[in-house]
From TrEMBL:
<protein>
    <submittedName>
        <fullName>Hemerythrin</fullName>
    </submittedName>
</protein>
<dbReference type="InterPro" id="IPR012827">
    <property type="entry name" value="Hemerythrin_metal-bd"/>
</dbReference>
<dbReference type="GO" id="GO:0046872">
    <property type="term" value="F:metal ion binding"/>
</dbReference>
<feature type="domain" description="Hemerythrin-like">
    <location>
        <begin position="12"/>
        <end position="127"/>
    </location>
</feature>
<keyword id="KW-0408">Iron</keyword>
<dbReference type="Pfam" id="PF01814">
    <property type="entry name" value="Hemerythrin"/>
</dbReference>
<keyword id="KW-0479">Metal-binding</keyword>
<dbReference type="InterPro" id="IPR050669">
    <property type="entry name" value="Hemerythrin"/>
</dbReference>
<dbReference type="InterPro" id="IPR035938">
    <property type="entry name" value="Hemerythrin-like_sf"/>
</dbReference>
<dbReference type="InterPro" id="IPR012312">
    <property type="entry name" value="Hemerythrin-like"/>
</dbReference>
<comment type="similarity">
    <text>Belongs to the hemerythrin family.</text>
</comment>
């Protein structure tokens, strides 16, 4: 489970709320992983991946618009990091999910959780400082 901590707040309310939503989506995948009552999780995994992709696209666009609005100097490096994340999400091979659903879900959860925390703490925190 990935819990929101106050240290993840960058001080820009709309961005912080969107980050919290990404945490909530990641936590749903964790809950699915722990659910022993669902034996075939394929459909639910696909739903979570799709929601994560769609919400991430929305969030990145909103964050990038905000960076442009404040004249953030590291906008391009942020855009590259965002594009790299989206490319990784686009390269998820849904054909492989059935061959080990829990393991596949753990891999996605680990990637998203690590990337999100790292990106917020190392990159997004700088946005608020530059205002």
């Amino acid at each position: 489970m990935i819990k929101w901590k106050d240290e993840y707040s960058i001080g820009v309310e709309c961005v912080d709320e969107q980050h919290k939503k990404l945490f909530e989506i990641a936590n749903r995948s964790y809950d699915l992983l722990r659910n022993q009552l669902i034996t075939d999780k394929y459909g639910k995994i696909i739903e979570i991946i799709d929601e994560l992709k769609n919400y991430t696209i929305y969030h990145f666009q909103a964050e990038e618009d905000y960076m442009k609005e404040i004249g953030y100097k590291k906008f391009l490096s942020q855009k590259v990091a965002h594009n790299d994340f989206l490319e990784k999400m686009d390269n998820i091979d849904v054909e492989q999910i059935d061959d080990g659903q829990n393991e596949y879900l753990i891999g996605i959860l680990d990637f998203v959780s690590e990337w999100l925390v790292e990106h917020i703490l190392k990159e997004d925190k700088l946005i608020a400082v530059s205002e």
